[in-house]
Design goal:
alpha+beta; about 190 residues; globular; 4 helices; FomD barrel-like fold; 7-stranded mixed β-barrel
Length: about 190
């Protein structure tokens, strides 16, 4: 798919590059937009689990850098689940008021030069501690779809993945499995 080529081409000699990563490695997370521009980064991403399907990383009040160069610290620890074949990722945020999920509709990830990289496609699913959820940023998605030229095929993939993500939430499966985020946060604390 052409819209991922900019991420792969910044690898070695224009070839697809995925670094070998193991539990305990420290990476960063870099998020881009469809047009290839930097959107946001998270300084800490401690690898807690990795297999052929996904990587799970953790951080605690990590430094976040925005596209305009501003920085701030996240207010809470987070467990982040990114997928190689699904078009979303999930940030489990362990806040004082409970577990919140910030789920991004996004490209599958790659790892290059010590960074987990993905393209953010605007649509978000926010899940609250009481189990309620809300789809966010539909207007931003429509705007970026128009100005960045998301194809009809891409639009179909992204909207289908949003539906898949909502279904996982309703069934409490995948990243929403009860106790999963807390289990990996305990692992994070041990490795830290």
């Amino acid at each position: 798919m052409l819209f991922l080529i900019f991420m792969y081409n910044e690898g070695r000699n224009g070839k697809i590059f995925m670094e070998k990563v193991k539990v305990g490695d420290e990476l960063t997370i870099h998020c881009y937009k469809h047009n290839g521009k930097f959107h946001r980064s998270w300084e800490e991403a401690l690898v807690l689990y990795i297999d052929e399907e996904k990587i799970i990383v953790g951080n605690n009040k990590t430094k976040v850098t925005e596209s305009d160069g501003r920085t701030h610290k996240a207010k809470e620890p987070a467990i982040v689940i990114l997928y190689k074949n699904s078009w979303f990722n999930v940030f489990g945020q362990l806040k004082k008021k409970g577990l919140f999920y910030k789920c991004n509709i996004a490209s599958p990830y790659i790892i290059d030069e010590g960074a987990i990289k993905f393209i953010d496609y605007d649509l978000d699913l926010k899940v609250f501690p009481d189990g309620g959820f809300k789809v966010l940023d539909r207007n931003e998605y429509k705007y970026h779809k128009k100005i960045m030229g998301y194809s009809d095929d891409l639009d179909k993939v992204l909207t289908t993945e949003l539906t898949n993500l909502i279904n996982l939430k309703r069934k409490e499966e995948g990243p929403f499995l009860k106790g999963l985020i807390e289990e990996y946060y305990e692992k994070y604390k041990l490795l830290r």
